[in-house]
Design a protein that fits this description.
The protein is about 30% helix and about 25% strand. It binds one RNA strand of 78 nucleotides through strand 1, strand 2, strand 3 and helix 2.
RNA sequence: GGGGGCGUAGCUCAAUUUGGUUAGAGUGCUUGACUGUCGAUCAAGAUGUUGCGGGUUCGAGUCCCGUCGCUCCCGCCA
């Protein structure tokens, strides 16, 4: 015997039909003479009534033995609920199933937490019993929606002529980027594979192979420390296109997001997205992933305060730094204690201090007001757009630090003041990233995006003049202040790629050793190409309004990168180590 | 590598500030009663290595040291 329906589909349309359901006992209500069981599967709940008058003498006591999470099969008749006992909370609430025959397919231990309970349960317990946690309808819903999102993306890319091509998981370890997960090779003692941080070079090779448009729902691995929005193993919607420029990528992704919003969330998404250059993003929002759901932009007051008799500001300006501020609306009422907390916050972000002004009807109120003329105060007020009742927060110092601190303070204040509306999705493209970044530790330039990103200027003069000023043809896509993807137009000329390597301090020999296959491929007719990778987990997390990636990954790792369900990683047998020619250092 | 938070009954939490009788509540669990519940109700009952180890003390869930786990953040994440 098998089920004829799921637990979510019976309605008054099925009245008087003989049906069979299978599922889990979600909850039971035993009234002595009559017993109600809510039967659950992925599709919903159906109330089953066990009444002695409809059951054999052996079956009724068996029904009384039912407990939470038992798996049963029930056969019976669909009947309307008695008037006044309908349940509006469930889709099948107008009917119930009168059990005439049933089988207990499996009993269950008392679960460590209630599947039917909606409250919070400690995360480690959920992960240890993830198979139970995933039974909870609220949790299950995330994965049903995640599936819908992926399906929509696949359909959209298919409609746009993309080929889904798999790339290896056992890869070559390459310098640059995050720490690799390494896999020792048995067949090549002393040698290692690396798990891919992204399929970057393979997808470029596919473009050189004339595949024209590639995509993949690709697992990527980075052996770095975790955060709420960072797992060591994550999924990218990875894609690459030939004969395109930035606008082609933007339009493709805007269309993709529009499709996802329409099909999954039932919302109309406005396109095209906002576009902002890296420099603008830093100057206006203090971040390369600006949350543009609210304003509170940063104002540069360096010019306005250059003649002010306040030593801190004066020294900063003289040494080439900047004085900038944000305006916290309606915060002039803050007590000195509250402002002191903000100062500490700012200092924890890296500031040397926090200067402030309250804008009141009697003018600027601040311990440093005495250093300013009324004309200067007026100019500051005008430039920052502050009005009566507002609080101005100043940070002075080296430009990057000022941006960083004010950017973080801006987010802090927005959260405090509730300026961010729920249910708002604001996408933005961040463009014109610097090509290179100076790495203090290694005392050399490193690629800000990756070494295969095309510079905007390929001529020797620009390169020689000032490498810091070189811009990349790279772009990030930002949603509500979270980076959900990034990509670039790639280098497709061998000479440019070689120049890039040499700039990064990678010698010709090393380049040939580690990236020889790419350089070779570039020399056999590589088309202009570019692409992007979207962080699927982050995207799903944001679209579903979840706080952690763990909510949208079926079997996530803990912050120490272990799996509580399977207890991975684990020790292995000595024989396994021997087969891999491995030995622990402390055994030598 | 660094900083913060948490760890008490199966689960969620209280008792920790100020060390002091037998570590409590809700829920779940067990048993019983009950023929229309849906967070069923009512009655009775069982359940503790206070994460682990050490120390201080007449006395430690509470204070100190160490350690483990979970979590948030900084570093790190091309």
């Amino acid at each position: 015997m098998k089920r004829t329906h799921t637990c979510g589909e019976l309605s008054t349309k099925h009245l008087n039909e003989q049906v069979t359901l299978e599922g889990w006992v979600h909850s039971r209500r035993d009234h002595g003479g009559i017993l109600f069981v809510d039967l659950r599967d992925r599709y919903g709940l159906t109330q089953v009534v066990f009444n002695p008058t409809n059951l054999t003498e052996e079956d009724y006591p068996k029904a009384e033995s039912l407990r939470d999470e038992y798996v049963i099969l029930v056969q019976g008749k669909v009947v309307p609920r008695l008037e006044g006992t309908e349940n509006e909370k469930i889709s099948t609430g107008e009917i119930e199933l009168v059990a005439e025959h049933f089988e207990i397919q499996n009993i269950a231990q008392t679960p460590p937490f209630l599947v039917s309970e909606e409250g919070e349960i400690s995360e480690s317990l959920c992960l240890k019993y993830r198979f139970l946690d995933l039974r909870r309808p609220m949790v299950q819903n995330n994965f049903i929606q995640r599936h819908q999102i992926v399906r929509t993306i696949r359909n959209y890319l298919d409609d746009n002529r993309f080929l889904d091509i798999e790339t290896p998981v056992l890869c070559r370890s390459t310098p640059e980027g995050a720490r690799d997960y390494l896999i020792p090779s048995r067949t090549h003692p002393r040698e290692f594979f690396a798990l891919p941080q992204s399929p970057q070079l393979y997808k470029q090779c596919l473009m050189m192979a004339g595949m024209d448009r590639y995509y993949q729902v690709a697992k990527c691995f980075r052996d770095e420390d975790l955060r709420a929005d960072r797992q060591p193993e994550f999924t990218q919607i990875d894609l690459e296109m030939s004969f395109v420029d930035e606008d082609d990528i933007f339009q493709l992704i805007e269309g993709l997001m529009k499709s996802v919003f329409a099909n999954v969330l039932g919302k109309d998404l406005e396109i095209p997205f906002l576009r902002i250059s890296y420099d603008d993003a830093m100057n206006r929002f203090g971040s390369d992933k600006p949350d543009m759901r609210f304003d509170m932009e940063i104002s540069d007051l360096s010019k306005e305060v250059q003649d002010v008799d306040f030593r801190v500001f004066k020294q900063v300006i003289e040494s080439g730094g900047a004085v900038k501020c944000i305006v916290a609306p309606d915060c002039a009422k803050y007590s000195s204690g509250e402002i002191d907390k903000l100062r500490k916050k700012a200092e924890s972000f890296g500031a040397n201090g926090l200067a402030w002004f309250k804008v009141t009807s009697e003018g600027a109120q601040s311990p440093i007001a005495k250093f300013f003329t009324s004309d200067q105060i007026e100019k500051i007020q005008k430039k920052s757009g502050a009005s009566e009742g507002d609080l101005l927060l100043f940070v002075a110092g080296e430009k990057n630090m000022v941006h960083d601190v004010l950017g973080k303070l801006r987010l802090e204040m927005a959260e405090r003041l509730g300026l961010i509306k729920d249910d708002l999705f604001v996408f933005a493209w961040v463009t014109d990233f610097p090509l290179l970044e100076w790495d203090e530790e290694a005392s050399r330039y490193v690629a800000m995006h990756h070494p295969f990103t095309s510079p905007k200027e390929c001529d020797q003069e620009s390169w020689d003049a000032n490498p810091q000023n070189l811009r990349a043809r790279a772009y990030d896509i930002v949603l509500n202040g979270v980076e959900i993807g990034g990509g670039s137009i790639r280098i497709h000329k061998k000479e440019v790629q070689e120049k890039m390597f040499s700039f990064l301090g990678i010698s010709t020999e090393e380049a040939n050793d580690k990236f020889g296959f790419l350089l070779k491929a570039l020399s056999f007719g590589a088309p202009p190409h570019g692409g992007i990778a979207l962080g699927l987990d982050r995207l799903v997390m944001l679209l579903l309004g979840q706080r952690s990636l763990r909510d949208v990954i079926a079997f996530p790792k803990t912050q120490k990168a272990s799996c509580l369900l399977s207890a991975a990683p684990s020790e292995v047998d000595d024989s396994q180590l021997k087969g891999l020619s491995l030995k622990f250092l402390d055994e030598e």
